[in-house]
């Protein structure tokens, strides 16, 4: 840095540390001219460069990410708040990740987007940042990237869509697709009805309104302290969502003045609050991977086993896919604060954990009313008992696997069955409806090659479609095991995230059709009944898959970590702060 802009560490005449942005906009000479003059081509008055906090608005708007397509308008409300509080808002785009369009899977690009976020924040003149998040992967990508810079940051979720309505009934995004497509395959729903449902399911701006990954992550944002109260559930179209964005804009300016950096919020206690909240909302298994990755960015020790902290917590919220209602109902019932209050009353919340509004989480929720006990059930008569994610171990998953018991058929949580193996997702699609496939409902479906390296990208294919001949018997669930993930809107007795994955040479790679597998969720056990000697013999014959030849795929496959470590890139773990030693000229 040249001598005329190296004012990072010196205090001003009031004894205050100058803001980070002053190293760009607060300097004289050629460099100050360069930084300010070009910005003025946007009509920014000179006095806006007087040392006021510069707030970046990190926006994942894209017409290819329908869940975030309203974010440019929502960002305008953030700007109102920033200006009211005396800050200068500057919006910038980052890579957007739309769950429904991206191939091979949006998860393939979570780490790439997080790199975009991290470097965009660090390289630019900003003192604090608003993270505009919505569709599944946009939330972890922005939190992870921002955490590696550790500026003051506040996440604003875009809000869920209104309830889907189809022929007089509620239908949930995602969940309804899985249900209705099985009905079409079973012959109980016509193709015409199925097509009509397309426009009935997703009928307003916003993200999935089931308790899928987007709503789960919006709830994680709120429970971990990174969002304002009610961040999770206000519908995207409700004017109160715009007010929330407005308030976030005001608040981030104060956070800069308070130097309230992310590491002060993302403590071990905050993560534990989020884990227990995930159980209480019946949240997505994807949160396991995302929160572990986030913790490793900010330097908090968090292991897969720590998810057992939530395993005894009941599911209070009766929302699809585990239950009946949708996010709009959750908001009218009192929203996430009403859930957090119950956790606090039962000693399941670290009450002192700090949140972005500057208050302890308990101060935000202790008086939160519950207006509808059908939607937010009571701890004494919970929607589901012991609902948290269970972490399984055994010779089939030495580094762990997960299952969401609340989304599974209870009788399958202890099950022993004959494996029917699909080496790839293509083989699954080709064979699953083949009438000659030797399979019935007592079998255990096993899918390989769906993990981070194997797919590549760690796809949401773990909730394998059931064989048509099983569906015709009226059976809707079977034990399924894979190294993949499952959409947060999906359900079933599905064991996910098996680690190490098949493509990394995990024991999953060695399973053969006909092997017996034992699942015992209460005992946290996933056992392959094959001797060590036989497994060793099979291992010798196993061939490691080749890396992709070039480009991002190559980078991804060579650096992605396993599911139990959050599937981040090895070189992205940790953070580098916000300082940059050199200017561009
Ligand atoms: Fe975007 Fe579900 S597809 S949130
Ligand atoms: Mg999803």
UniProtKB/TrEMBL annotation:
Residues 1-21 are annotated as: Disordered. The keyword Iron-sulfur applies. One of its GO terms (molecular function) is L-arabinonate dehydratase activity. Residues 374-567 form the Dihydroxy-acid/6-phosphogluconate dehydratase C-terminal domain. It comes from the Bacteria. Its EC number is 4.2.1.25. SUPFAM superfamilies: IlvD/EDD N-terminal domain-like, LeuD/IlvD-like. Keywords: Iron, Iron-sulfur, Lyase, Metal-binding. Residues 52-363 form the Dihydroxy-acid/6-phosphogluconate dehydratase N-terminal domain. The keyword Kinase does not apply. PANTHER family: HYPOTHETICAL DIHYDROXY-ACID DEHYDRATASE (EUROFUNG)-RELATED, HYPOTHETICAL DIHYDROXYACID DEHYDRATASE (EUROFUNG)-RELATED. Belongs to the IlvD/Edd family. This is L-arabonate dehydratase. It comes from Pararobbsia alpina.
């Amino acid at each position: 840095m040249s001598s005329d802009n190296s004012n990072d560490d010196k205090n001003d005449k009031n004894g205050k540390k100058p803001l980070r942005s002053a190293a760009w906009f607060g300097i004289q000479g050629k460099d100050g001219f360069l930084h300010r003059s070009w910005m003025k081509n946007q009509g920014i008055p000179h006095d806006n460069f007087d040392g006021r906090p510069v707030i970046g608005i990190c926006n994942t708007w894209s017409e290819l990410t329908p869940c975030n397509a309203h974010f440019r308008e929502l960002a305008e409300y953030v700007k109102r708040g920033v200006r009211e509080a005396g800050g200068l808002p500057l919006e910038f785009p980052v890579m957007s990740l739309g769950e429904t369009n991206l191939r091979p899977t949006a998860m393939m690009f979570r780490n790439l987007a997080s790199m975009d976020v991290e470097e965009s924040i660090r390289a630019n003149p900003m003192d604090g940042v608003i993270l505009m998040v919505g569709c599944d992967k946009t939330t972890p990508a922005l939190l992870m990237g921002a955490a590696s810079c550790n500026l003051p940051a506040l996440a604003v979720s875009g809000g869920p869509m209104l309830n889907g309505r189809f022929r007089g009934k509620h239908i949930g995004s995602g969940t309804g697709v899985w249900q209705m497509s099985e009905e079409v395959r079973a012959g109980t729903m016509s193709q015409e009805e199925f097509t009509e449902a397309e426009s009935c399911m997703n009928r307003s701006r916003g993200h999935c309104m089931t308790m899928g990954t987007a709503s789960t992550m919006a709830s994680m944002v709120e429970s971990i302290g990174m969002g304002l109260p009610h961040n999770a559930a206000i519908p995207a179209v409700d004017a109160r969502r715009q007010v929330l964005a407005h308030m976030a804009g005001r608040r981030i300016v104060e956070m800069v003045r308070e130097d309230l950096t992310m590491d002060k919020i993302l403590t071990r206690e905050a993560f534990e609050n989020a884990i227990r909240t995930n159980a209480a909302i019946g949240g997505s298994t994807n949160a396991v991977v995302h929160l572990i990755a986030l913790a490793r960015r900010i330097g908090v020790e968090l292991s897969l086993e720590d998810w057992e902290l939530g395993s005894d917590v009941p599911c209070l919220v009766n929302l699809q896919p585990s239950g009946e209602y949708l996010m709009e109902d959750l908001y009218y019932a009192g929203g996430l604060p009403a859930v957090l209050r119950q956790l606090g009353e039962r000693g399941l919340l670290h009450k002192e954990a700090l949140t972005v509004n500057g208050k302890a989480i308990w101060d935000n929720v202790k008086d939160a009313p519950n207006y509808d006990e059908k939607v937010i059930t009571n701890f004494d008569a919970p929607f589901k008992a012991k609902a948290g994610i269970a972490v399984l171990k055994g010779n089939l998953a030495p580094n762990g696997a997960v299952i969401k018991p609340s989304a599974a058929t209870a009788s399958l949580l202890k099950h022993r069955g004959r494996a029917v193996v699909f080496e790839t997702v293509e083989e699954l699609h080709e064979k699953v409806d083949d009438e000659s496939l030797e399979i019935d409902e007592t079998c255990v479906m096993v899918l390989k090659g769906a993990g981070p390296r194997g797919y590549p990208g760690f796809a949401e294919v773990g909730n394998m479609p059931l064989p048509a001949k099983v569906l015709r018997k009226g059976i809707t669930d079977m034990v399924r095991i894979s190294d993949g993930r499952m959409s947060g809107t999906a359900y079933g007795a599905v064991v996910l995230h098996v680690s190490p994955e098949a493509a990394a040479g995990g024991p999953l790679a060695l399973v053969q059709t006909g092997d017996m597998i034992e699942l015992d969720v209460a005992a946290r056990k996933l056992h392959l009944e094959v001797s060590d000697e036989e497994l060793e013999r099979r291992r010798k014959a196993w061939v490691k898959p080749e890396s992709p030849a070039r480009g991002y795929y190559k980078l991804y496959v060579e650096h992605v970590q396993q599911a139990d470590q959050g599937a981040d890139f090895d070189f992205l773990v940790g953070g580098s702060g916000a300082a940059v030693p050199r200017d561009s000229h």
